[in-house]
C-alpha cells in the first residue's frame, strides 16, 4: 500500500492516523467515563493520568495528521453523492479535526486550572496553560463534557455514514479506509 | 577566696560566651513570608502552600551554636489550589488535622555550607518526629533579615498517606519544601 493517498484510496499514513486516533478516542471515552463519577482517590488519579497521557498523544498526532492532510489530498468523494451529502461529509470531517484539537486543549487547560499538571506517561510534564482557578475549571469541565458529547454524536454519524455508503450506496468510501483490502470500483 | 575566684572566672567565661554567641531574635512576618510544598502526582509536580505558620528565629552567622529556629505550621491552612485535594489532605488518610492540627520544626544543630547554611531539626508531623535537614540562606537587611531555603522529606516517614494514599505509584513519597521568610526583629 503506498504511503500517500491516491484519488480513490487512502494511503498507509492517512489510514494509520485514522485507526490509531480512533482507537485512542475509544480508550479516552472509556477512561473518562470510568473516572468521572469516582471520588478523589488513587483509582481516579490512575485513570485520569492515563486519560491525560493518551489525550496529549492525540493532540500530538492531531498536529501531524493535520499537516499530512494539508499536503496530501484525500481521495475524492464518490461523484454520485448529492450536494448536501458532500456538504455533510465535509462538515463532519472538519468538525472531527476541530475536536481533535479542542478536546485535548480543553482537557489540558482544565488540568492546569485545577493544579493537576499534565504528565506524559511520567516521562515529562507539560507546562500549565493557565494558573489555578476554580471558576475556570468548572467552565472548562462543562466545555470538555459538551465537546465530548458532540464528538460522540459526530462519531456515530460518521460510522453510520460509512456503513450506509458501503451497504446502501455500494461505493468504496468505507473500503478505501480499510487496511488489507483492495479498492475496486464498486459502482 | 578560692570559691569566689572560681565564680569570677565562670562569670567572665559566661559573659565572653554570650558576647561571642550573640544571636539576634526574629519572628516571621506572616503577610510576607511563604511556606511552600511540592508533591508529585501521576508523574507531574504540583505545588501548594501553608497559609498559617509562625517562625521564631534566633540566628547569627557567627553564633551557630546558639542559633535556634522554631516553626509551627497550622496544617488546616493547607492550600493546593484545589478544594477537593485540600479536604483530602486534611482528612484522616493524609494530615489527619483532627488529631494533628499542627506540625512543629525545632532545630538541633547548624553548620556553614558552601552556599549558605544548613541545619538539622526535628520535624513533628502527624504526631511522628523525625530529623529533617534544611538548607538556607540568611540575608540581613535594614529592617530585619530574609531567610530562604528548602528541604526534602519523605511523606511516608511520617505516616502521611494511609489507605489509598500509602501507595507511591500515583503520589510520590518525596516531597519538597521551600520557604522564604521575611524576618522582623523581636522587640
Could you describe the 3D structure shown?
The complex is a heterodimer of chains A (187) and B (187). Chain A is an all-alpha fold. Chain A has helices at 12-36, 42-71, 83-113, 134-169; strands at 119-120, 124-125. The mean pLDDT of chain A is 92. Chain A has a two-stranded antiparallel sheet. Chain A has a single domain, classed as Up-down Bundle (Fumarate Reductase Cytochrome B subunit). Chain B is mostly beta strands and 187 residues long. Chain B has one domain (22-185): Lipid/polyisoprenoid-binding, YceI-like (Lipocalin, Beta Barrel). Chain B contains two helices and eleven strands. In chain B, a hairpin with a 2-residue loop joins strand 8 (117-125) and strand 9.
Interface with most residues:
A-B, 22 and 21 residues
- Globular, elongated, flat, extended or rod-shaped: what is the shape of chain B? elongated
At CATH level 2, the architecture of chain B is Beta Barrel
Which radius of gyration of chain A do the C-alpha atoms yield?
19 Å
Give the CATH architecture of chain A.
Answer: Up-down Bundle
- Tell me the total number of β-strands of chain B: 11
Question: Could you give the count of β-strands of chain A?
Answer: 2
Helix/strand/pairing category of chain A? mainly alpha
In angstroms, what separates the terminal alpha carbons of chain B?
A: 40 Å
Average predicted local confidence, pLDDT of chain A:
92
Radius of gyration of chain B: 20 Å
Question: Averaging pLDDT over every residue of chain B, what do you get?
Answer: 90
Question: How far apart, in Å, are the first and last alpha carbons of chain A?
Answer: 22 Å
In DSSP terms, counting alpha (H) and pi (I) runs of 4 or more, how many helices of chain A? Answer: 4
CATH domain fold name of chain A: Fumarate Reductase Cytochrome B subunit
Which descriptor suits the 3D outline of chain A?
A: elongated
SS field, number of helical segments of chain B: 2
Number of domains of chain B: 1
What string gives the helices and strands of chain A in order?
A: HHHEEH
Amino acid at each position: 500500500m503506498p504511503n500517500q493517498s491516491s484519488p480513490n484510496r487512502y494511503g498507509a499514513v492517512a489510514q494509520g492516523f485514522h485507526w490509531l486516533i480512533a482507537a485512542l478516542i475509544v480508550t479516552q471515552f472509556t477512561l473518562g467515563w470510568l473516572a468521572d463519577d469516582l471520588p478523589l482517590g488513587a483509582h481516579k488519579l490512575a485513570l485520569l493520568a492515563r486519560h491525560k497521557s493518551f489525550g496529549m498523544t492525540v493532540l500530538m498526532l492531531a498536529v501531524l495528521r493535520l499537516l499530512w492532510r494539508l499536503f496530501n489530498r484525500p481521495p475524492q468523494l464518490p461523484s454520485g453523492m448529492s450536494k448536501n451529502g458532500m456538504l455533510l461529509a465535509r462538515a463532519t470531517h472538519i468538525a472531527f479535526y476541530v475536536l481533535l484539537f479542542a478536546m485535548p486543549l480543553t482537557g489540558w487547560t482544565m488540568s492546569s486550572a485545577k493544579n493537576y499538571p499534565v504528565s506524559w506517561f511520567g516521562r515529562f510534564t507539560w507546562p500549565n496553560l493557565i494558573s489555578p482557578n476554580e471558576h475556570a475549571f468548572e467552565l472548562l469541565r462543562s466545555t470538555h463534557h459538551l465537546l465530548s458529547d458532540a464528538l460522540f454524536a459526530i462519531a456515530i454519524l460518521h460510522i453510520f455514514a460509512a456503513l450506509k455508503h458501503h451497504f446502501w450506496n455500494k461505493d468504496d468510501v468505507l473500503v478505501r479506509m480499510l487496511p488489507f483490502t483492495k479498492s475496486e470500483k464498486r459502482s | 577566696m578560692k570559691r569566689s575566684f572560681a565564680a569570677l572566672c565562670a562569670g567572665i567565661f559566661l559573659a565572653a560566651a554570650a558576647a561571642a554567641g550573640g544571636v539576634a531574635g526574629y519572628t516571621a512576618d506572616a503577610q510576607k513570608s511563604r511556606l511552600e510544598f511540592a508533591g508529585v502526582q501521576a508523574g507531574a509536580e504540583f505545588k501548594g502552600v501553608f497559609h498559617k505558620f509562625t517562625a521564631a528565629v534566633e540566628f547569627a552567622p557567627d553564633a551557630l551554636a546558639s542559633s535556634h529556629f522554631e516553626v509551627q505550621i497550622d496544617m488546616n491552612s493547607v492550600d493546593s489550589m484545589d478544594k477537593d485535594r485540600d479536604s483530602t489532605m486534611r482528612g484522616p488518610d493524609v494530615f489527619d488535622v483532627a488529631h494533628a492540627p499542627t506540625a512543629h520544626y525545632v532545630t538541633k544543630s547548624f553548620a556553614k555550607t558552601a552556599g549558605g547554611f544548613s541545619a538539622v531539626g526535628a520535624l513533628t508531623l502527624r504526631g511522628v518526629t523525625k530529623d529533617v535537614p534544611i538548607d538556607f540562606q540568611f540575608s540581613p537587611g535594614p529592617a530585619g533579615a530574609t531567610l530562604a531555603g528548602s528541604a526534602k522529606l519523605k511523606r511516608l516517614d511520617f505516616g502521611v498517606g494511609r489507605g489509598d494514599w500509602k501507595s507511591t505509584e500515583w503520589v510520590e513519597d518525596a516531597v519538597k519544601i521551600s520557604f522564604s521568610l521575611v524576618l522582623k526583629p523581636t522587640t
